[in-house]
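Structure tokens please, single chain.
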Amino acid sequence: MDLLAFFNLLQLIGGFILAVGYIPQIVKIIKTKSVKDFSKLYVGGIFTGIVFMEAYAIYMFFWQHTAGAFFATNTVSFILSGIEFLLIMIFSKKYSKNKEVTKTA
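Here you go.
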């Protein structure tokens, strides 16, 4: 295995670990329907950073014909972090509405 293949493998493994790391949190959000302890600013910032990285990955993969492992793992991260951010936005609105109903009752 040459050095480039070794580092591509490291990127693939690391990118996969980072991407899959979203799944337990997404499952927990769906099960509990609770996101009251989440920072929308933080998760939104992470998602925005991944969006910019995805633009770079698309450019590198389709125009430079390189960085295939990065493109693959970043696309999975983009999708999963987007799902997480969307769920947080949906359930935080529901939490806000329930909080208002409780205050007025």
